[in-house]
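Appendix C: a fully annotated inverse folding record. The material below is reproduced so that readers can follow the format used throughout the book. The structure is listed first as tokens, followed by the designed sequence.
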């Protein structure tokens, strides 16, 4: 669990998700909102995938 919490990619993706939530609440409703949510979701999935890949490589080295 610690590998997810302290990873820079995960922290960045969560901050991006937070800004997307705030923009959805306070911003104008237009065509950019779904694109922002798709972008935030893809960023989070890629960050988790990077952590999993790092973990797998570290366990193979040991």
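Designed amino acids, in order:
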């Amino acid at each position: 669990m610690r590998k997810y919490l302290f990873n820079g990619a995960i922290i960045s993706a969560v901050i991006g998700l937070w800004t997307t939530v705030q923009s959805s609440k306070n911003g104008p409703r237009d065509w950019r909102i779904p694109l922002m949510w798709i972008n935030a979701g893809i960023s989070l999935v890629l960050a988790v995938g990077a952590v999993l890949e790092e973990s797998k490589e570290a366990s193979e080295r040991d």
